[in-house]
Amino acid sequence: MKTVKEWSDAFDVLFNEVMSNASASLDEYDKSIFLTKAQEEIVKNYFNPKGNKYQEGFDDNAKRQSDFATLLQVATLTASTSYAKFDSRSNAYQFPPDFFIAVNEQYQVTADGKTYPYTIIPLSYTDYNRVMQKPYKYPPKSQVWRLITGEVTPDSTGYWIKAGEKAAAGNYDVEDIPEDPDHHYDTIAEAEADGWRFIGPTDDENVPVVEIIGRYNPSGIELYKLRYIRRPKPIILVDLNTVDNNLSINGITSATPCELPAHIHEEILQRAVELAKAAYATDQNGTIQLNNQVQTGQRSE
Prior knowledge:
Elements: H1 4-18, H2 28-47, H3 62-67, E1 72-77, E2 91-94, E3 99-111, E4 114-122, H4 125-131, E5 143-152, E6 159-162, E7 165-166, H5 188-193, E8 197-199, E9 207-213, E10 221-230, H6 265-279, E11 280-282, E12 288-290
C-alpha cells in the first residue's frame, strides 16, 4: 500500500518522463485532483464494460468483484415525504450520501403479514412519456418503474457506523471523531482502523432522488433495498489546510492514501498522469500551456 509520499514521488517521476522533463509545476493539491479523478474513472469503468479494454463488467470476473468488496454497501431506503414528486402516484426515495454506483435494486411491499418483492425497471424520460400515452399507465405485475427525478443536497451532517450500528447519537461533521461508549479514540484514523466509517455529504456532490411507480397494496409498508458502490475516499497527498483553508476534495481535507487494493494503484497512477498530460500542452518554445480540452480515451484497466 503506497503512502501519500510514495504516491507523490511516483506521480512526479512518471509525469516528468511523459512530459520529457518539460513538466508544469504541479503542487500536491493539483496531483491529488488528478489522482482522485483517475480513481473514480477506473471504478466507473470496472462497472461499465465499454470503458475498459477487456470489455468486462463487475460480474464478468471474480477478481473485479473482490477488488471493490470494501466499497460495496447495502441500504434500506424509506419513502421521503418532503420531496416534490413529478408523478403523484409515486414514492420518492433519496439515495445515501455516499452513493456512487448502483449494483442491485429491489422494491418490497409488506401487507397482510406477507412481503412481496418487485423488480425495479429503470425508465427513461422518453419511455415515461410513451407509457403515459397508453390506456394502462402502470408496469406489469411484480414490477415497478424507477424514474430519476432530480438531486438534492444532503443534510450538512452525517453519522458514523460500525458493523451496522451507529455511533452515539448526535450530528457529526466529516472531521468529528465518533463517540463509542466502549472505546475512546484520539484520532479519526484510529476509529477507522477499528471499523468505523463516516456516512455523510460532501461539499460539492448532491445525491439522486428517484420515484418508484407501481401497482401494489397502498396500505402496505414499502422498502427500497439498494446494493451500491460507495464513493471511494479521495487520494489527498497533503493536509490541504496547510495549503489553503478553503481547499477540500469531496469534503475531505486531511492527507488520505488510496483505499483500493494495491494492485490497482499503478492503473490509477497511470491514468492520473494521462489526465495531467492531457490538461497541459507544450508549445514550440517549450512553454507549458494549459489545455482546456482534456481528451479522454479508453482506459487501460
